[in-house]
Design goal:
549 residues, globular, eight-stranded parallel β-sheet, five-stranded antiparallel β-sheet, 28% helix, alpha/beta
Amino acid sequence: MNQSNEFKKRIVYQIYPSSFNDVNNDGWGDLKGITAKLDYLKDLGIGIIWLSPIYVSPMDDMGYDIADYKNINPRFGTMADFDELLLEANKRDIKIVMDLVINHTSTEHEWFKKAIETPENKYRNYYFIKEGKGKNHKKEPNNWQSCFTGKAWEKIPSLPGYFYMHLYCDTQADLNYSNPEVIKEVEDILKFWLDKGVYGFRCDVINHIYKSSLKNDYSHILYNKGLKYYSNQEEMFKILTKFRTEVLDNYDTFLVGETGELDKESGNRFLNERCLDMFFEFDHVYADKSKLIPVFKRKFNVKRLVKPIFKWQRDVPWIANYLENHDQLRSVNRYGDATKYHKESAKMLAIFLLSLKGTPFIYQGEEIGSLNIPNASLKDCKDVAAITTTQTVKRLLKVSESKAFKMVNETINRDHARTPMQWANTVNGGFNAGSSTWLKVNPLFETINVEDELKDPNSILNFYKKIIKFRNESDVLKFGEFKEEALKKDIVSFFRIYNGKTYQIILNFSDKKVKFDEILTLKCLISNYDNDVKLSELPPYFGGIFEVL
């Protein structure tokens, strides 16, 4: 089938269903709640919705532990509710993208339950179920570590002496892609949802799906031992290409992958071999924390943010651009100023995101300038990775639990992004009619919410609508070539070039006035300051798009 490549023309909005809109007032967001907000998203200018997992799941990792790939979690509604969402989205010319989590399943999945029933059955080889080492087989099969800290193997009570592998949460058993039956099962899942009319998939930790060996990893690394045997393995590229040729080519669709540990060669292979249409890189997320030990916070440095982003702008023909998602802390807290220049820095970051080459991804609440939870506590924390990492930090660094959580909270606590959407200055931020919520509502809803921002012509939300409209109508921003300028302290500048037109994007990532040397003749097309701004004295957190005359 001919591909429309609509993903190159549209803006994606990520919805975290648990926290978006709770229509039935049970404390959890639901599909009917998403349908009820489609007009809001259409008015915002969104063309594609990415739904974080809505499948049947015990929710140990908030739906990224799937127990049934072909049914809807009753917590979110029914398949009829999903069909209604799809129908109503299509009426508004909004496409739906599902979250595809196929590195692992929940241990509640029927495949896994059958795999551990008896020593010999076809599902045993769907997973990595191995006999332990040492006397009485009590030692793990290898020394690999979970990406959520701790060991990557869990004992199976019903099979004494046996373990199963989990690179993530201990109830997320890794699938074995050396087994052709697993590949067939995944192809069937793809067909099921594409036949229903979804546009494509965001593929969770997709470059970790193939394990080329189960040898011990003696690399001198502090965490994620085993990585060299499962990250970006040769067979993984072949499997993804197989998905494309045998399934995806029969539909107008696209795949975006979550891919850590990438270099230029691997990134281009994903695109050139048609494994993915685009991918998320992770290099820039260490702008304010240590890459070696991510729970160690460090002062934000604009070069650590922009240089990796610019590298990927140069290195690949297309990429997924983002500053926030369900796994990252709020961008204004990280890269802007959450107090004195909240509006200005949020708008500047919007210009940055929406001016880059590639497909922009906006995360729910980003468009209203949502901030991290003030005074978050371990008692209220729901993020399984934050909870387990807190205990690991406490043990390894020999610090108090409160100190360990403070380190985790300032760097990797995913709850900051997952609090209920702030719709209004009403009970529970307008998320529901007053029922207790699965995760506490961010108390900042009183001053940061959709309803109030819609009424304020100078709000962050109304600026997002303005800059989204500008991008949707600009071939230069959608299709133009990227060209960077050298970074000058806190000033970021780059060009987009298309069909004889050149735009220069100029950004000030500081809370001070700075001088910009204007070499070219420029006309301001859009900026985050209402008044005319002299480039010789850029105000704090200025952002603007200029046409080169």
